[in-house]
Description:
The complex is a heterodimer of chains A (341) and B (173). Helix content of chain A is 30%, strand content 27%. Chain A has 12 helices and 16 strands. In chain A, helix 9 runs parallel beside helix 10. The longest helix of chain A is centred in the N-terminal third of the chain and has 15 residues, at 14-28. The model of chain A is unreliable at 1-10 (pLDDT under 50). Chain B is built from 6 helices and no strands. Chain B has helices at residues 2-50, 54-64, 67-81, 88-101, 107-117, 125-172. In chain B, helix 1 packs antiparallel against helix 2 (54-64), helix 2 (54-64) packs antiparallel against helix 3 and helix 5 (107-117) packs antiparallel against helix 6 (125-172). The N and C termini of chain B lie close together (12 Å). Classes of the chains: A alpha/beta (341), B mainly alpha (173).
Amino acid sequence: MKIIKDEHNSKVSSSQRYQIYELFDTEIFPFLSLNIRNILKFVKTDILEILEEIRLRANRPLIIAGNQFDYFVEPNGKVTSIPDKGYIVTKEDIQKTLTLISASSLYALEEEMRSGYITIKGGHRVGFTGKAVLEQGSIKTIKDITSLNIRISREVIGAANKVIKHIIDPITGRVFNTLIVSPPNCGKTTMLRDIIRQLSNGIPSKGFKGVNIGVVDERSELAGIYNGICKNNLGIRTDILDSCPKGEGIIILLRSMAPNVIATDEIGKNDDALAIEEAINAGVSIITTVHGSNIKDIQERPVIRNILAKKFFEVIIFLSRNNGPGTIEQVINGKNLNILR
Amino acid sequence: MLFKIIGVIIVISSSSYIGFLIADYYRDRPKQLKSLQMSLQMLETEILYLSTPLPEALKTISEKCDKKINLLFKMTADILDKQQGYTAGECWEKAVNKYYKNSALNTSDKKILLSLGHYLGETDKENQLKKIKFTLSELKKQEEEAEEIRRKNEKIWRYIGVLTGISIVLIIF
């Protein structure tokens, strides 16, 4: 395990430090139970800066994790690699945190309780597991929550710099249908967000004028919309359809906003595939993502296999976290599977 | 003579005033219990049909409901808004305790309100509605009881006030 403190001490300026602290103070801490909040408040800013996850499990030590590291947190806010020293998260901590995350309105989050995650202000995603309650064979809600995973979403301006040239047709300036493939937690959403921003704003250095982009943001992660205010910068020509199921959303955008490009996160359902087909046939470019680590992985999945067989996607980008989140493993041509990079 | 008349007026009016104050207490309790029920019904609607998050729902209710009790909802929403780490239940408890001091409610009314707090916002829709319905029925019982007490006491205390004044005047003069 590498020591972050020495590595980062020189890099983080005091104003950056303040920004990081403020991010946590306004977007993360208010949703944690008092016990956990008071512990994490004393964690060093250097660690907070590269933090990606806060994991709460009932009767297990509190864990904070980032790229290739995870630490247990002692009750005084110090980090340690010895599990026994860590603060043991109680069932009440989890219950309280969940109540705070839902603004004491679990009843208003029925859809989220079914799907196993809640998106909070700022686009951070909180996943949870517990006991599933079934009704006629499908999940009605999840109760007795035992684990929470708070994933901190960060906007990385320039995350897509290395791939953007593969996405745009150099001759016509058309945006290719693009699929981003990556395992969870490899910066898929961050990459997509930056692609949207760059395509929407235009890239003067490449002579690319911006295009109209419609975004279906089913989980409120891309734009981070909360109470109608968009947190992330998705560019100046972007229309965002928030919290809408992807399949229906794509059709709505197609009909109502006349976009050049439609972007959406994590496809997987049959409806999504149908809508994508519809959009591509209508001459709109699609940019989307899917979980997986190589071409074989995604070909195993029926819905994706069907789309791939029809050779809709012209560019497929594979990500990993070999050199940190957002590492570009490979870019291939989706039509003939030639390696572009 | 003039002084005597002024004295008589002062004595009678002040003792009547005391009587009316006590009568008011008996009149206010059923009234407040009734408006509490109405506001909880509003909360029920907000949860059932609109799925409004609790902080917003409480604010809406505090704007719409009877002025005598809106403090309760406003205070809960205000404490929740500060995001100090209190759950809605805890905020409700604090607000009930504060509101109780200046209200016409008695301790058993307060207990009913407090017990609602334990569940507020922590369960799914169905259970929220069940709990609110239960609280409503309890409050209804309290209201009926309070109404009965009011009928017995309100007029009596007014008469007692006025008559005490008159009898003091008669005894002194």
